Structure prediction request, 184 residues.
Amino acid sequence: MSRIGKSPVKIPSGVDVKIDGSKVTVKGPKGTLSIDIHSGISVEIDSETNSVLVKRANDENEMKALHGLTRSLIHNMVEGVTNGFKKELEVNGVGYRVQKQGKNLVMNLGFSHQVIVPETDDIKIDVQGTNKIVINGIDKQKVGQFAAEVREKRPPEPYKGKGIKYVDEVIIRKEGKAGKAAKK
Prediction:
């Protein structure tokens, strides 16, 4: 049995989980999220322990994979509507800076033009200083995707380390041309 799939998802106070056929809806203080469940997976609410249990129909490999995935998705929904998710990005480079104008993220990234990324309904952008971007939201997948799209505007390069990177990301630096001349 899946080790992740068999562990129950605790429902904190203030969060309401509803199961309507193959649709699971989680409502909390920060918003509402819902997901459609595969037909081979069943989801139940255990009222004694106030938790969500995920079970699978059989032991086929596809069902085993979906078992753990479904439990993780439900856990992320519960976590999102209670605490939310955030990704922090850092902009490195001479002359590279970011600012927020209204609901748009305006970035100067060494191009001849400014790069403008609009805020969506699900995603909130905060700028701290001139080189730190914080992306907040309740849906973990959307927050991660939006952060990846912002990072994609100028990914970090390995020679000088310039570009947009995650705060906890480590850029492995390359030596450059000077290494070849030193060998002669």
